[in-house]
Fold this protein.
Amino acid sequence: MMSCLWKTLDGRMATCRTGFRWEVGKWYKSDKESDLSDDGFCGSENIIYAMEHIAPVYLAKVEVRGKRYKTRGWSMHDGGPAYNKQMWPEMRIIKAWEWRKDDSIALAIFAAGLCQESLEQNKDEAWRSFFIDSLVRALKYAKVAAEAHPTSEREATTAAVNSAWLAAGKTDQGKKMYLRYIEVLQKCHSSILRRINEGKMVEVKGATR
């Protein structure tokens, strides 16, 4: 049974490090285990993890097959779960969508709402200041995303992803906060899936541009 993962691509429908270009529906194969990550033969189960590696111009759902070589995580965020990036010898894009400014704004606002929810639900004074700070910063990121110039959509995307990480918090504060971290990132992932299912994201048809 083949697995499905998520990856993000630049404006050429390419992996940013090497410029490896992809076409929707076409299988690609790499025999060089050491080059899998650089070639772009990698993906993540959670869209937010994929967005950490490359701020998307395109969001792609990919199918993989063969023997998974290894899994690794090199999150920039302290306490982030390891192994958020999988590498496979064969991969193809099943579907792809344009990632637009509206998508960044929606994610940033959703993440800020999760910060608000955490603040309202948590009665521990020791944590309230943390959640208040997260909410204030997340709202600022939402504002940045909303006000980003159309030619600076990467800035909006980065702000949206930062909002998601703020909502999740850190994992180094015990099991309860770790489980919350995973839950929040899954909610952010699911919010993007809802936009896809509701037809709010523009699907890429056929070959790359």
The chain has two domains: 3-98, 101-201.
